[in-house]
Design goal:
Belongs to the DEAD box helicase family. DDX4/VASA subfamily. The chain is α/β, with parallel strands linked by helices and 593 residues long. The chain folds into 2 domains: 251 residues, P-loop containing nucleotide triphosphate hydrolases (Rossmann fold); 168 residues, P-loop containing nucleotide triphosphate hydrolases (Rossmann fold, 3-Layer(aba) Sandwich), CATH 3.40.50.300. 38% of the residues lie in helices and 12% in strands. The chain contains 25 helices and 14 strands. The strands form 2 sheets. The chain has an 8-stranded mixed β-sheet, with helices on both faces. The protein has a 6-stranded parallel β-sheet with strand order 9-14-13-10-12-11, sandwiched between helices. α22 packs across α24. The two termini are 18 Å apart. The chain binds adenosine-5'-triphosphate. Adenosine-5'-triphosphate (ATP) binds next to α10. The site of adenosine-5'-triphosphate has 21 residues, from α10.
Amino acid sequence: MEEEEELSEEEAEVSCFQMGKVCPLKNVAELVLMCAQPGRGFGGNSQTQFNGENYSTQENDFSRGRRGRGGHSEGHDRGFGGGYRGKNEEIFTQATTEDPKESDPSNPDSSIRPKVTYVPPALPEDEDSVFAHYQQGINFDKYDDIIVDLSGTNPLPAILSFAEAALCESLQKNVTKSGYSKPTPVQKHAIPIIFAGRDLMACAQTGSGKTAAFLLPILQQLMADGVAASSFVELQEPEAIIVAPTRELINQIFLEARKFAYGTCVRPVVVYGGVNTGFQLREISKGCNIVCGTPGRLLDVIQRGRIGLTKLRYLVLDEADRMLDMGFEPDMRRLVSMPGMPPKENRQTLLFSATYPQDIQRLAADFLKTDYLFLAVGIVGGACSDVEQTFVQVTKFSKREQLLDFLKTTGNERTMVFVETKRQADFIATFLCQEELPTTSIHGDREQREREQALADFKTGKCPILVATSVAARGLDIPEVQHVVNFDLPKNIDEYVHRIGRTGRCGNIGRAVSFYDPEGDSQLAAALVTILSKAQQEVPPWLEESAFSRGATAFSQANKSFASSDSRKSQQAGCERGQPVPQVAVADDDDWE
Ligand SMILES: Nc1ncnc2c1ncn2[C@@H]1O[C@H](COP(=O)(O)OP(=O)(O)OP(=O)(O)O)[C@@H](O)[C@H]1O
């Protein structure tokens, strides 16, 4: 079976009880659900019962104690996945993930797991829904001015237009219906590289069109080769696998694939945790050329013998740095060593992200052919320049009032509020509802049904405020998100870049406001100063002071997470040669249990 979480609901309850609090996690989520319903508020008591500050303090110690780095159990009794994976979307409460009828009988735990019955609603088939998109913004044309660095042997020239890509008629039609009139820089470069059969590590800022940069050339080549999915065959052998770290993101990539493949013979399918496995297996058996999956569920369906790998031509890792950090790297290694998986010399491996720490770049080379190309559009690891970043100095206890003040100025504008822990997400969402601000929340303790509903309510504007943990930080492309608030700053600068990238997408302008608590956030100061300077934004003097007070090493450490370019260049120059590849620490432990 696929997913393993570290803490059962019962255990959580017991631990809370031991801390002197009775706090079934599920009840907190239910409160938020109630709160999201119009006309249902909370009495003043709930604030004291669910005191976010107290819980997060306690939760930190308690969670760390239970998890630890050693929590990741290799070769554990449920086959794949398992243990602590850092920011792993696929580790949730038991109630959401497992299906006893389908689980491994050798696993004694499996008998107590409730069946996952959730089946997502059928997707609308009409063209308007399939091709619904938002407008590119006023800065879309400025993408052309971004400096591009393509390194590696025998680089390919970029295309300048979709016409040059010579897409087949149906694909070109779908591109036009999607509102794409010209390719973004990452598309201009990645499309010919992928056509040429080269492996690629591509880095481009958030919201600049990386998804289409890999989907379009893959679809084009599958169509040019006349592939068609054979339906109702139990074992499907897809030509492409796309993996991403979170359920909502992989679903979004699937919807993009479905959109571009509209009216063609190519059939994409999606598999992710929290959804009934039987439903997904039936979807696979209807035919599958491209399988989009989160790692645990994907490995599970492969292990069940429902996905064969012998025809695989493309392996895509979206949010590649995340997929290769210590949370998911073991799964990725398992994936590439599955029986039938073509060796890297015989498949095309494509890595995409907006951030690539040097360590991860070096590790990624294990998955790529030696002559892979490295594409850097703009500053590797840089923040999107269309996001105006501001910082507010706060104390831990003034944050809530500051948030309220801020949200009162934004009216109905869509705002994502990032917090550190799942409980904090529930607590803040409840608090905002009490203040009559229509709010919903998304985090790993919510049932998949609730998570999808929360996202839908945010997208439609029914709840224009979404309180989220870092589970929603990467990749999500939600129209008209005008503001991102870092109520709690993340522990890791890359996470910051991804979070603020939920706004200011596709040439639109966005705003990010971050609450900076000098007591808890100073370890991020140097990296924030670097990010702001590289994005040519004003650096508050107090932030600069805070950064310098930590000494020059803080800046050199901060700079280590920004690869100025291809890590092979620094290796060639003799820098850090011979050093072991360190594992990158995963941020926000408390958020990913
Ligand atoms: N050539 C294009 N013309 C117009 N719109 C585009 C083009 N390419 C992509 N888009 C749109 O831009 C938005 C952002 O694209 P996408 O989600 O692929 O960004 P991304 O680079 O993957 O971001 P992230 O790093 O956050 O994952 C999407 O709504 C997408 O449909």
